[in-house]
Amino acid sequence: MTNYDVIVIGGGPGGYVAAIKAALAGKKTAIVEKENLGGVCLNWGCIPTKSLLRNAEVVRDLSEGEKFGFCVGDIKADYAAAQKRSREVSARLVKGIEYLMKKNSIKVYRDSARFTGKKELTLAGGEKLGAKNIIIATGSKPFALPMLDYSKANVLDSKKALQLTKAPKSIMIIGAGAIGMEFATVFRSYGAQVHIVEMLPRVLPGEDEEISALVHKEFTKKGFDVHVGTKLVSVKNDGKKVTANFEKDGKTFCIESEMVLAATGVRPNTEELNLKAFGFQLDRRGCVEVDSRMRTNVDGVYAIGDVTGKLALAHTASAQGMCVVDGICGKDVQTLDYDNIPKCTYTVPEVASAGLTETKAKEQGYDVKTAVFPLSANGKAVSYGDDAGFVKLVYDKKYGQLLGVHMTGIHVTEMVWGIVGYLQMEMTVEEMAKVVHPHPTVSEAIMEAAHIANGEPIHI
What we know:
Blueprint (H helix, E strand, L loop, with lengths): L1 E8 L5 H10 L4 E4 L6 H6 L1 H18 L15 H25 L3 E3 L3 E5 L2 E4 L4 E9 L3 E3 L12 E2 L1 H6 L6 E5 L3 H12 L3 E5 L11 H13 L3 E3 L3 E7 L4 E7 L2 E7 L1 E4 L3 E3 L32 E3 L10 H15 L14 E3 L5 E5 L2 H6 L4 E7 L4 H5 L6 E7 L5 E7 L7 H9 L4 H5 L10 H10 L7
Parallel strand pairs: 1-2, 1-6, 2-3, 6-17, 8-15, 9-10, 9-15, 10-11
Antiparallel strand pairs: 4-5, 5-6, 7-16, 12-13, 13-14, 18-19, 19-22, 20-21, 21-22
Helix pairs in contact: 1-8, 3-4, 3-6
């Protein structure tokens, strides 16, 4: 049996980051990954979807040429070329992770692993590994809707959707979270008729209610067929056409489309790890239960990323991985505040948020106030011809402490990192208003909203 200081099971953004940090700390480190390094994020999630969204953005910009004073004639958008580029982008970044493994002398086992002891793993190929510390970073998979037959080519999950080389003529997307709304944006940009169906009362249900309302409005204006508070009742599929019956407010209706995409969340990859045999505590979803330092109930074994059920975001997994290694090395461990971890959705308009929503802040007992600055009053947004959206501050009335920021509009996903710093420093809206922002930028809207919060609106 080969022994290590640290073994990481899973090579996604949590696993490979933890492995690199452990190796940099002088730990003999190995990583077990049966597929490509980079996990879902680099291969079938964050990166390829952003590549497709960028192609879609170019298509939209060219189609609006008259607004900017040029005409390119009939546009023939090649979705196959866009899909090919998305795979090339993923492959390039995966090679980068492979290089980092070699650079940091991290042993990579191209295999799957299961626990055959509390500190022992057996690979599918039969080799046994032991470690002082084991980090479970096996991620998640799309949740499968039982009414759908995924063996049919026109029934998609997020991975199958990224393998399409031709945009559908029509598609119904079940689930209006970030994944569903981003795919909707891509396919609509290539001319597809897109139906979005969400069981909860609003699109992007995890975001602030005003954000959801504006995104719903903008999607409807752009020709999306959006249904919220709507339940899937039944599905028929002859392989060429999907016919689905839905129920809303006691009434039923039917939608027909060429394809259907299920975007209803994810579930953890824990089934093959043999965790129950060694007493690991799992919740009802199968997620590994951990404390604030990502420690499981088994000494020396940790879990990070989607498999913990905390917050299914790549940067959350990376942050958790670094916290684990700090603990292993005897350093102070930062306790992650999951409310303050930023969330981004790359739709049109974009959405970004950090901190408490207005509703959550009230539930936690704060005397809540809000300030909203519209991007229609922001010079950069107006100059770019893309001024739909706003910045909303949620703050405590008594002290003026910032509790949350919720934004929708152009470039907001590039602005939210600064908000995380404000929240961590427990800044007040008065202090925020004194932070000088460059002009012209969309980020000025944050400062302007702070001025409003202080009763001193400048540009509105």
